[in-house]
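Section 3.1 - Work completed
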Amino acid sequence: MLGKNLPLMDAPAHFPSVPTELLTSRSHPDFDFTHPLSYGALVWEKGVQFVVFSRSATAMRVLLYDKVADTEPVEVIAFHRDADRWGDVWSLFVPGIGKGQLYHFQADGPFDPSRGQRFDPRARLMDPYAKALAGDFQPGDDGIIRPPKCVVIDDHFDWQGDRHLRRRLSETVIYELHVRGFTRSPSSGAANPGTYLGLIEKIPYLKSLGVTAVELMPVHEFPILDWYGQPRQPVNYWGYDPLAFFSPHRGYACSQEPGAQVREFKQLVMALHQAGIEVILDVVFNHTCEGNEQGPTLSFKGLENRVYYMLDSQGGYRNYSGCGNTVNGNHPIVRELIFNCLRHWVLNYHVDGFRFDLASILSRNRRGELIPEPPLVELIAEDPLLADTKIIAEAWDAAGAYQVGSFANSRWSEWNGRFRDDVRRFWRGDEDTVGALATRLAGSSDLYEQSGRRPFHSINFVTSHDGFTLHDLVSYEQKHNEANGEEDNDGENHNFCCNYGVEGPTRRRAVVAVRRRQVRNFLATLMLSQGVPMLLAGDECLRSQHGNNNAYCQDNEMSWFHWRLVKRHADLVRFCQALIAFRKSEPTVRRIRFLRGQPEAPGALPDVAWFGPDGAAPDWHGSKNCLGYLLAATPPQDSQSAGRHVLVLTNATEEAVEFKLPDVAQELAWRLFVDTAAKPPLDIYPDVDGPPLAADAVTLEARSLRCWVAQP
C-alpha cells in the first residue's frame, strides 16, 4: 500500500453561509424513540432517522438530494441543538422519505489544526455508517469537494435460508482474488465482466479447483475518481484506500441504480455459499483516503478529526499505515464503529470471515504505542456474533511492527510471513534453511504453540497480491515496477526470488523447465504443509505481472486474470486440483495438533520422522538443501476418519541426490502421488495410484519434490 501527497485542503479564513432558502428544521413529536439508538440512516415506516456522532460540532445538518448527478441539495435540514442531540449523538427524524434517499452531512465547529480540529461548514460529509454510496466526486468551481452521495438502504433481502458454512479452519483452502480483476479481461467471456455478478459466473471454476474459501481484496468503498471528478493518477486498483467502511464498492456493481451494489454483493455471497465456498473479506481499518493535513475533508475529519485519527501533540497525523493517516482504532468511539462494521458484514451480508490489513495498527493505543491485550483486538476475538467467523491478521504494519506469532489469542490466525520467506529461501537454495523449512512444514510451532494456538492458526502462503506472482517469483531477480510511474522505487526489494539464468520471458528450454519445476515445488510444499494454505488467484495457471511486484495501480491486462492461461497451462491447473483434493481428503497433512516426533498411540509410528539423504537425522544447519520426512497416519480421533502415511523427499540443490529411506519407511507399501521432476501427466497421480516404491533408496532429481502415500 502506498500513500500519496494530496492537494492542500486547509479551510479558508471565512466560510460562506448555507443558503437560507434551503435551510429547514423539522421536529419529530410523533416519532417513537423506543428503539435502541444506532448510527447512520435508519429506515422507519414513515421516514428516516439520521444518527451521527460528533462531540465538538456546534451545528449539524443533513443535505438531501433527488438525483445522483445533483451538485446541490434540494433541501438542507438542521438538527436542533437541544431536541436533536443526545449527549454527543445527533439524531434527527425526517418524515416522508425512505430507502433510496441520497444525502450528506454537514457540520459546523472549530477549525484549529494545532488542536486536531478541522471542521469545515462547507464540506459535504459522507456518513461514517453509510451502507451504500452513489455516483462519484463531482467537479465544481466553488472549491467545495462533492464526494459520492450516501444512500439510504433497506437491508431486506431474501437469503433463502442461507447461513454461514462454519467450515473448520483446519479444513480450509483459501483462494485470494480481486473481484474486478478476476473477470475483467475479455478472455473471461463473462456477461458481466469485472463485477460481483461476473464473479458468480466463474464459481464453477472455483469449484473445479476445490478451494473452500475466497479471500476478496477490498470490496468496501474506495475512490474511483479524484476529489475533482477526474480520473485518479495513479489508478486506485487494489482498493486499499477506504472511503466508507460499511458500503460495498459501487464500481463492482452491474446496475447503476443507487444501492444496487448491496443487492448484487449479497447475491454473490449466497451463490458462493450454495457452491460450498466461504467468503473472507480483506478489511482495511488502519487508515482512510482522507490522508494527512494535505488531504480533503470527506467524512471523519469534518465530524471529529481528533477522535477518528491518531494525532501528535501538534495536531499532525501519525502515520503507521504508510498512507498519511492512522485510524485511532482503540479509541472507544472508533472501536465501536469497527465493531459495528464487522457485525454489519456478518449479519447483513453473511460473510464468513475477515483478513485485517496491517493489523498491528489495531494493537496501538492513541499515542501509537504497541500495547498488550489491545481492547479492539480482544473485542473482536470475544464478540459472540463473530464466533462463527474466521479472523486473520496481517500481523505487521508500515512503521516496523512485526507481530507474526505474537499478535493475539487463539481466536486469531495470522498470515505467516515467515512461512513465505523460509520456503522461498529453501527452494532458492539458500544455505542454513533446512531447519527453517522443517519448522514451517510442521505448522510453525515456534510461532504459535507457546500462546496455546494450533497449526491451523498459521495461514501459509508463498505469494499474495502484495508481491510477485508465483510465475514471476521464478522468472525475475529484480522487481520491474516502472509502469507504476515511481521510477521503480516502490515495492518490496527483498523477494527471495531467482530467474534461473534469464531475467523475464525466455524460450530457453532448460530455464523454462526448471521454472516449471520450481512452481510445482512451491505448490506442493504449500499444500502438504501443516497449517492453512492460501493460493493467489492465477498462480495455478502461471499468471504474470511482467515482474511488477506492486501492481496496486495497474487496472489493466497486467493485473487481470487471463482465462486463456487456464487452457494453456491445463497441466498445472490439474496439478493444483489434485493437490487440493488430496489435502481435503487427507487429515495427516492438516493436523489440529503440533507434531512431536513421538507415536500418538502404542505401537504406532512417530507422528513425524525427519531424515537426510543418508537416512539418518538431517543436518539442520548444513549447506545441502535436502530434507525427507515421514508423516504417520492421523489417528481416527483427530478427524472423521483415519489418515494415511505420507512420505516426502525434497532436493533444492542443482544436482541429483540419492536418498536412503529410514527403516521406518522401508516396510510400508508406498504409491507415488507427486513427482515435480516428471513431465505431465506423470507429475501427479490424483488417485494416488502411481508406481510403487520398490527400493530402499531413491534418486531425487535436482530441484524436485516427491511424495508417496501408504495405507496404515
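Second construct:
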Amino acid sequence: MPSGRLAILAGSLTSLFLSFGFVDLSNAATIDDITLRDQYGQETSLAEIKSPAIAIAFLGTECPLAKLYAPRLAELATRFEGDVTFLGVNSNVQDSLTEVAAYAQRHGIKFPILMDNQHELADQLEAERTPHVFLLDEQRNVCYSGRIDDQYGISVARTKPQRQDLAVAIEELLAGKPISVAKTAPIGCIIGRRRSTAPHGDITYTRDIASILNRRCVECHREGQIAPFPLTSYDDIEGWEGMIAEVVTEQRMPPWNADPRFGHFKNDARLSAEEKESLLTWIKNGCPEGDPADLPEPPEFAEGWRISEPDQIIKMRNKPFNVPATGVVKYQYFRVDPGFKEDVYIEAVEARPGNTAVVHHIIAYVTAPGERKTGLGSMLVGYAPGTAPFITPPNSAILVPKGSQLIFELHYTPNGSPQTDLSYVGIKFADRSKITSIVGGNQAINGKFAIPPYADNYEVGATRTIKRDLDVLSVTPHMHVRGKAFKYEAIYPNGEREVLLNVPQYDFNWQLRYEFAEPKRLPKGTRIVCTAHYDNSAENPNNPDPTKTVTWGDQSFEEMMIGFYTYITPTKE
C-alpha cells in the first residue's frame, strides 16, 4: 500500500463510489432525532441525551483503523465524561451483533455502539468511513466531522498524533470558542452499505470473479492471515465492495510497487488490465453471484510448512515478544546462534510469523562469525504477507559458514489489542554430494549518508562490482519510512546500461522480494548500481521529524540503504 506520494487520503474517490451505487447522499438533510438499539438491545435516542455535546463515531469490527482508534475513543470518552456523550455507530451490513459486542469488549469500549442497519444515521450525517467521527453541539448541530487525529492512516503510522482533531474540537466547543478546524477528511474503510444496484450483467462471481480473487487475493484474505477480512466466498464480499473498488482503482492492492516497464518477475502480483476491468464492472453491476455450478475449486494452502518438514527450526528468541495495542513499535532485532559447528548447505528456508495478525515483515540475516553490526549480513530469507519461502533451484544450495549467527528483524503493526509473537525460521539442509551450484546473497550498500532536514528527494547511491559471472535470481530493496524510490541498474563491461528494477513509489510497509522470471545473467565486471531517493519533508506522512538530519541506523526513524540481491553460481569455475 503506497503512502503519502500517491495522495491516497480517504474520500478521494467519493464520486467513483456514487457511480458504483454504494451511497446516495443527494438528499442529505439536517440531523433529526433517531432511536437505535445498541449491541445489547438497549434503545438510545439522540433527543433524550442531555449532555452539552455528543460525539458519534462510525466503527467497523474488521477495519484496521477502527481497531487502532477504538482505544483512543475509549480514552476520550473517559476524559470528557460528564460533558460529552460518546456513541459508536455500526452501519456495516457485514457486521453482526455478536461481532460488534466482541469488538467493544476487546477494545474496552464502555459507551453504546448503535446498530444502524438501514444506514439511517449514516445517511443523515453523510458518514463515509470507519472511523468517521461527528461532534454535535447542544442544539445537535454538527460542529466537527472527520478523523479522530492524524496518527494513523493508509500506510501511515506516526509515533504520536501531530493534531488531535476531535479532542481539540471538543475542548473548543466546551469553552464556547469557534471550532478552529471544523472538517477533516475521514480516513479508513468505506462503510459497507446495502447494494443499491440490482445484480445484473454477464460477469458473475462464480464464473469470473472467484478465480481472480483466488489467484490474487485469497493468499492473505483468509481466516488467520494478516488481511483484515476474508475473500474466500461470495458472502465474504458483502459490505466490502467499496473498499475493493478503491484499492484496485488506486493500485494499492494487490501490493506490487515495481515499474512494469522494466524486468519480468515470476511473483508479479499485479492484476491484469482484464482482471481489473472485470472486478470493477462486476461491482458496478451489483455483484451478481451466478450459477453455483460454475464455482472453481478453492485454492489449497499449506496449513503447516510450505517447504518440506524442516531439519532445524530456529526461534527468534526463547520467549514471546509483547506487542502493544496501539502506537508504533520500533524494529525489533534478535540475535540467535543456530549452533552451526561446520559449514551448512541449505536447500530451502522459510520464515514464519508466530502471530500473523501483527507481524508485518521478518528479515533473517546471516552474519559471519564475529560480525556485530546489525543488518550488515546477507539476507537469508524474508517474510511479508503473501511472500513465498525461498527454495533453491535443483542441485543448488545456500552455503552458510560455520559459526555464523542469525539476526531476526521484526516489524510489528499493532491492531488495537495487546498481542504476543514468537516468530521463527525453518531450514531444510541439502545433500552436499548433489550440489553443483551455490546460491549466494550480497548487497550494494551505502551507510555513509546524511539526509538534510526537509529534503524531499534526497539521492543516495551504492555500487557493487561483480567479480565473476552470476545469474541473479532476485532483488530486494530495503529502506525505512523516508524511503521514496529505489532503482537497480546493471552497467555491463561493454558500457551498456540496463534497468533491472525500478520502484518509483517505495513503501516500507511492503518489504517485497522481486524474483526474476528467468535468472538474469551478469558477467564478470558488471556493476550493480542502486539509486535510492528519500523524502525527509513534512509532506511525507510517515516522517517522524522533518527537522532532523537522518543517518544510518537500525530503527525505522533512522534510515538504511541496501540493495540486496540473490544469485546462483557454479561451485567450481
